[in-house]
TrEMBL record, chain A:
Name of the protein described by the UniProt record: ABC transporter permease
Bilayer topology: Multi-pass membrane protein
Keywords: Cell membrane, Membrane, Transmembrane, Transmembrane helix
A GO MF term: transmembrane transporter activity
TM annotation in the entry: 12-29, 41-62, 91-115, 122-140, 160-181, 212-232, 244-262, 269-286, 292-310
TrEMBL record, chain B:
Domain of life: Bacteria
GO terms for cellular component: plasma membrane
Protein name: ABC transporter permease
A Pfam family that the UniProt record links to this protein: BPD_transp_2
Chief location category: membrane
A molecular function (GO) term: transmembrane transporter activity
Membrane topology, as annotated: Multi-pass membrane protein
Claim: Transmembrane helix is one of the keywords in the record: yes
Residues annotated as signal peptide: none
Keywords per UniProt: Cell inner membrane, Cell membrane, Membrane, Transmembrane, Transmembrane helix, Transport
From TrEMBL, chain C:
Protein species of origin: Devosia nanyangense
InterPro entries in the cross-refs: AAA+_ATPase (IPR003593), ABC_carbohydrate_import_ATPase (IPR050107), ABC_transporter-like_ATP-bd (IPR003439), ABC_transporter-like_CS (IPR017871), P-loop_NTPase (IPR027417)
Gene3D superfamilies noted in UniProt: P-loop containing nucleotide triphosphate hydrolases
Keyword Cytoplasm among UniProt keywords: no
Record carries keyword tRNA-binding: no
Protein name listed in UniProt: Sugar ABC transporter ATP-binding protein
The family this protein is said to belong to: Belongs to the ABC transporter superfamily.
Length: 315, 331, 489
């Protein structure tokens, strides 16, 4: 009983419970038809959300005002870079992946350059950067029709016993991120900066370096997502990352990370990503119109955050 | 004065030079929104002298009124340390209501708009009472408004009520209507928020909420007031937008969320701490409107790069602002 | 004017709990009109909680509040205000984004309508002139531009402004914590004048001299209870300390002999303030405790921060050899990580040494926390508890543990004893002297002249410059004060 009680206190449990509920509602509607397929599809799509969500989580944990709005543009650019470098050739997959990671890393570095050198608030810096990147992407990726190398495309769709391989790798990746956050110097320093940036500097935390690494990490993960998305959907696209602007923020918060900074939660991101993906699946199975789907998605996000409650104010 | 030997005087003078330096920089910062507007107008004038005319300004600033109103809506929310990520889709929703219900069935239309403002007030209360992050709540609401807008107007269409078209098409003598409207908006909001005694409480709630509460004021009331005002200005923005474009579209306001945030910041506001400037925000909105749509066209920037050029303009202005702000904030 | 001697506020059997902690455990006190009640006790004794109850910001779980003979059933902040009870809290309660005048308006619901700004300005300016003559604060100054001492001056003056509601009782919780000796004495003499005019004061301070010299009556609290109360004349410093349950009074006379071998020791810090025009510079050697004195906010903190930065980046005019750690004075903004446990707060400065392989080892972290709990005496059942579960003094000890537990050979202290109780202070002084004997160098900015007695060498600051350089054997309070006011060439 106490163990259950302790489990219920974990902020991320609610996102998983929500995901389960939505899934049950969907299969109740289909009378159990397609229950497994729904999970497989949800896992495949959640992978992308989880990867960008983790990047966004590190950034948001840096404290109030820190958020990366350039992720969609960065994802779009990386998808084009990956496809161009791979050139449909299986031998170039690794190089293409590295190029995509590099493009994301550069975007992250550029973001931090704006934040630090020009002292622009992160929201506006990443927003301005995203405008510029979008333009780069439009002119660079114009008319790009390159398909991903067949081996890469197959890999992103590979399944073992109905479980996407990419999902398994992403679970491992999330575990790694959790260890990075809680048990390494870098992670502790991110948490310290998020709670009190001034105190962190005075306690000897190299604030500039840690913030730079965090924006670069987030950009790099955006780059990775771009390449994977291009493989999964068989082609790059300027708009391929658009939905991740809002979802990356939504999963971080629904997953129990504090938007005030200094407190992060990795497992919750998986729960929240599954929840959001399954929610869309459920609404699709119900056959509702686009307007109703948006309306319900919105109401459910507001409902979830209200029910989970905000953090109790200090004192 | 610094060299008076009496102990009291030397205490007083200790930090005076520093304070004066801060005051000068604050002045320069306050002037920056105006300077950037002048710069953009000058650039337009150099590139296309004919644009600097009554007709030119009426045309170029057509969209400035809705953007300025949305920026003010965002400013109210930012004052109390929140952020409204739904203002863009809200403006779109209001636009759809204006182009359909308000024309065909004015009473129902008004009722819907009043109810929408009520929803904003309720959000303020919810955010305060449950201590919720406004970013997420308004993120969710952005889906809600967009869903409602699509349900109301699945394909672009509808038409603005005639009185609204007449109002937005006004051609007063000498000064173009958008400029007059911008001045009125800036002055009214500046007076209300910066000069009235209750406006002080509202800004104080952004600066140090605990202090306001300890002095016996209701934080719930300040939050609800600010969100209600945001709703009111959001409605005005949506109506002004439809009055300018004449017909509705569910996606018409989507860009306004980011534009409004950028406008507030460009105008000298800060995300936390209740530091905002309504006049600056309106100037910021005008600058963004001109820079984003007009200047780039005159400069023959290829369409691919227009979005990017917007980003660059934002960066230049903000960098200039940063240079004037206090150094050494972070250790 | 109320008759002197009438009881204006009475608390009867007041209890207040925070979880299992009884912050107030049946407190009964009364304040009469026209008296100044001094309230003392260690951190965590319940003084601040008691004040929150009086001010209406904290509701008691048990007990009654009677104001002016009327029992109060729905007591709240606004009720307290109408009844004329004001409170100056320890944490500053000004809005930094507003002007001094606007902050005054917040305090007075009746200042509104046309001309409110003018009235608020006049009100606060007049009061500032009355309390702190020569204060140099304008009503149109924005609070965030003011130094912390001036903010406290505004806050205190604001509490004494009167509009439509009467003023009967002002509670001052550590009102001099950020003030220098001069402004403190201005405030204290104002308090005495005010009390003489029939207004009551409750005065909380860790500086026992201030309490003894300015109160009519003294109440001593310990563990949420009133242990004793009586006329101020019946107390002296030793009796207060004993009643508070502290260590024996008077800091032990500092033992260490003046350093004869100063020149031969290794140089650790050499620093010249930016505004220094003559050749004076601050020198600190291995094993030395160097004091930075003078009026509050005259460049001492700036110099400490410059030294702190110089440890990692090259800087003109400053040489630092070896790693540096800083003990913040403003705990909430410069020191504490509020979401972390005590042990995480201690470990953050020493993460590299807590690693095992690539990862931070929880065992090593616990071990470090336990060592420092014993060494510095942090009073908590569990070092994994949140840092905010500690009283202010114990939070400060955790910050000391963070710095002293690190590899830093140079420790900077930015007036770290603000609002810390006597017992904690004495323990920490001892520890600092110990660490200095072990070879550490301390740069210690303090606003309390008493603390300078712990230093080997004292530099007095004025207007961002070093104006005097005193050896231990030359150090007297008069000299420090004299040079604090003197303009140097």
């Amino acid at each position: 009983m106490t163990r259950l009680g302790r489990l219920l206190e974990k902020p991320w449990i609610w996102s998983f419970a929500g995901a389960l509920l939505v899934w049950l509602a969907a299969i109740a509607f289909t009378r159990g038809y397609g229950a497994g397929g729904m999970v497989t599809a949800a896992l495949s799509l959640a992978v992308f959300t989880v990867i960008v969500g983790i990047g966004q989580m590190f950034v948001i944990t840096l404290g109030p005002g820190n958020v990366d709005l350039s992720l969609p543009a960065s994802i779009g650019l990386a998808s084009a870079v990956a496809m161009k470098v791979m050139g449909g050739n299986d031998a170039m997959v690794v190089v293409g992946l590295l190029a995509a990671l590099g493009s994301g890393f550069l975007v992250g570095s550029f973001n931090y350059f704006l934040i630090r050198a020009l002292r622009i608030p992160p929201i506006i810096a990443t927003l301005s950067a995203s405008f510029i990147i979008q333009s780069v992407d439009i002119s660079y990726g114009r008319g790009l029709q390159i398909k991903p190398p067949p081996g890469f495309a197959d890999f992103t769709n590979l399944q073992v016993l109905g479980i996407p391989v990419l999902a398994i790798l992403t679970v491992l990746f999330a575990l790694g991120a959790a260890v990075l956050l809680q048990r390494t110097i870098y992670g502790r320093q991110v948490l310290a900066i998020g709670q009190n940036i001034r105190a962190a500097g005075l306690a000897g935390v190299p604030v500039g370096r840690v913030r730079y690494l965090t924006y670069a990490l987030c950009g790099t993960l955006g780059g990775l997502t771009g390449a994977l998305l291009a493989g999964y959907f068989r082609g790059a696209n300027v708009d391929i990352g658009n939905e991740y602007l809002l979802t990356s923020i939504a999963v971080v918060v629904i997953g129990g990370t504090s938007v005030a900074g200094g407190k992060a939660n990795v497992p919750g991101i998986w729960g929240a990503a599954l929840f959001l993906v399954l929610l869309l699946t459920m609404l699709n199975t119900f056959g509702v119109s686009a307007g109703v789907r948006l309306l319900l998605t919105g109401l459910i996000i507001v409902g979830v955050i209200t029910a989970a409650g905000g953090p109790k104010s200090a004192r | 004065m610094t060299d008076t030997p009496s102990p009291t005087a030397s205490v007083a003078s200790a930090s005076v030079p520093a304070a004066r330096g801060i005051a000068v920089r604050r002045w320069l910062r306050a002037l920056l929104p105006a300077l950037s507007l002048v710069l953009v107008v000058t650039a337009i004038g150099v590139l296309n002298p004919r644009a600097i005319s009554y007709f030119g300004f009426s045309l170029m600033l057509g969209l400035a009124i809705p953007i300025a109103l949305a920026t003010i809506a965002q400013l109210f929310v930012i004052t109390v340390n929140d952020l409204d990520l739904s203002i863009g889709t809200f403006v779109g929703f209001v636009g759809c209501v204006t182009a359909t219900l308000l024309r065909d069935n004015p009473l129902v239309g008004i009722a819907v708009l009043v109810a929408a403002i009520g929803v904003y007030a309720g959000l303020g209360a919810l955010i305060h009472l449950r201590n919720l992050p406004s970013i997420v709540v308004t993120l969710g609401m952005s889906f809600v408004w967009q869903g409602l807008a699509i349900l109301m107007l699945p394909t672009p269409g509808g038409k603005a009520p005639d009185w609204l078209l007449t109002l937005m098409g006004l051609k007063p003598p000498f000064v173009p209507f958008p400029i007059i409207a911008a001045i009125v908006i800036a002055v009214v909001v500046h007076f209300g928020l910066m000069r009235t005694s209750y406006g002080t409480i509202l800004r104080g709630a952004g600066g140090n909420a605990a202090a306001i509460e300890r002095a016996g004021w209701s934080l719930l009331r300040t939050k609800v007031t600010m969100f209600t005002l945001a709703g009111v200005f959001g409605v005005l923005s949506g109506m002004a937008l439809i009055g300018t474009t004449t017909s509705g579209d569910a996606n018409i306001g989507n860009g306004y969320t980011l534009l409004s945030i950028a406008g507030v910041i460009l105008g000298g506001g800060e995300f936390v701490g209740g530091r905002v400037s309504p006049i600056g925000a309106v100037l910021g909105a005008l600058t963004l409107t001109l820079a984003a749509t007009q200047l780039l066209g005159f400069m023959h920037i290829p369409p691919d790069w227009q979005v990017g050029a917007n980003g660059i303009i934002l960066i230049i202005v903000l960098a200039a602002r940063a240079l004037l702000s206090r150094r050494g904030d972070a250790v | 004017m109320p008759e002197i001697g009438n009881t204006i506020v009475k608390l009867d059997g007041v209890e207040r709990h925070f979880g299992a902690v009884r912050a107030l455990d049946g407190v009964t006190i009364a304040v009469k009109a026209g008296e100044c009640v001094g309230l003392v006790g260690h951190n965590g004794a319940g003084k601040s909680t008691l004040m929150h109850v009086l001010a209406g910001t904290g509701t008691p779980d048990q007990g009654t509040i009677t104001v002016g003979g009327e029992p109060q059933t729905a007591y709240s902040v606004s009720r307290a205000q109408t009844l004329g009870i004001r409170c100056v809290f320890q944490e500053l309660s000004l809005c930094p984004n507003l002007t001094v005048a606007e902050n005054t308006r917040i305090y007075h619901p009746s200042i509104r309508g046309i001309g409110w700004r003018r009235r608020a300005s006049d009100l606060i300016s007049a009061k500032l002139d009355e309390v702190f003559p020569g204060h140099g604060i304008s009503a149109s100054d924005i609070v965030q531009d003011l130094a912390i001492g001036k903010r406290q001056m505004v806050e205190v003056a604001r509490a004494f402004t009167v509009t439509d509601a009467p003023l009967r009782l002002v509670i001052l919780d550590e009102p001099t914590s950020s003030l220098d000796a001069h402004t403190s004495s201005q405030l204290l003499s104002f308090v005495r004048r005010t009390v003489a005019s029939g207004i009551s004061c409750v005065f909380i301070s860790h500086l026992l001299g201030e309490i003894l010299g300015n109160s009519d009556r003294i109440i001593v609290m310990r563990d949420g209870k009133v242990v004793t109360a009586g006329a101020a004349s019946t107390f002296n410093r030793n009796r207060l300390v004993t009643e508070m349950g502290g260590i024996e009074a008077e800091p032990a006379a500092v033992a260490a002999a003046a350093m004869a071998d100063r020149e031969s020791r290794k140089l650790r810090v050499r620093a010249r303030p930016v505004r220094q025009s003559d050749g004076r510079e601050l020198i600190a050697r291995e094993g030395e405790i160097v004091g930075l004195a003078g009026l509050a906010a005259h460049g001492q903190t700036d110099l400490l921060l410059a030294v702190f930065r110089a440890a990692t980046q090259r800087a003109a005019n400053i040489e630092v050899s070896g790693p540096v750690a800083l003990v913040a004075g403003d705990r909430q903004t410069d020191g504490i990580f509020a979401q972390w446990s005590i042990s995480e707060n201690i470990g953050i400065r020493s993460l590299a040494r807590l690693r095992k392989g690539l990862l931070i080892s929880p065992a090593r972290e616990d071990e470090m926390a336990a060592r420092w709990r014993d060494k510095i005496g942090i009073r908590t059942p569990d070092m994994h508890n949140n840092i905010l579960s500690l009283s202010g003094g114990n939070q400060q000890k955790a910050l000391f543990a963070r710095a002293l537990g690190s590899d830093a050979g140079i420790v900077l202290m930015d007036d770290p004893m603000r609002g810390v109780d006597v017992g904690t202070k004495l323990e920490v002084y001892e520890l600092i002297r110990d660490e200095a004997r072990g070879g550490r160098t301390f740069l210690w900015y303090t606003t309390e002249t008493d603390e300078l007695k712990n230093c080997d060498h004292v530099y007095v600051f004025h207007n961002g410059r070093i104006v005097a350089d005193l050896r231990r054997d030359e150090l007297t309070e008069e000299k420090v004060i004299q040079s604090s006011f003197a303009e140097s060439a």
